[in-house]
Amino acid sequence: MIAFENENTHIYHADIGETGPIDYAKCWQVLTPAEQARAERFRFDLHRNRYVRAHGQVRHILAAYMDVAPSEIGFQTGDRGKPFIPSHDIYFNMSHSADTAVFAVTRSGEIGVDVEMFDRKVEIDDLSRHYYTAAEQGALARLREASDRRELFFWLWTAKEARMKVTGEGLALDPRHIDVAIEAGRPFAYRKPDEPKASLAPVEFTRFAGACSVAGLFEPILAIKSLADID
Prior knowledge:
Shape: globular
Distance between the termini: 11 Å
Number of helices: 6
Helix content: 25-40%
Mean pLDDT: 94
Structural class: alpha+beta
Number of strands: 11
Largest sheet: 4 strands, mixed
Low-confidence stretches: none
């Protein structure tokens, strides 16, 4: 069973694409009938296969912390739609962008994670005006290079999404009500909202060109782990 040491939060990265290393059949067989039925409702194979690999993989990861079979993990959904595991002091969250998925696991409290690829096609200026605070927009405007603005945009986006996910509020929490402090081109703290108070940690991956942020109702001390650790 995997334990925490000096860190309190483990982060995993996985390629959930067709050419990635995750075994589709191994993931499919640990899903519940309801999860399999949901997978079958996807119109396109690409989206169904990503769903199966991501949801199967999170079961395999959590099983390594709970010392149970992946198929025996019983998820429930909170009032705000966030999944949790009753009767266990384990908290988790996952996110994916195209073929890249990230998973966060902790025993310290509620957690949220979000990942976005820098090459995702979005209207940065328009979205910033609609969803970012004045301070965040100012930080973007001070950057001369378009690539730097794009990267900071997505770092801020993941920080906001992680904060929205940590409590399960989602879009019920207006992104403009989340104000993210920036240091050296990375988000590092939430100036607001104050309740509940959340901590923020950017995650630096070298395997892909994207941004990833973790929010916790505690101070996350991160360690990036390998999927090989759970095999």
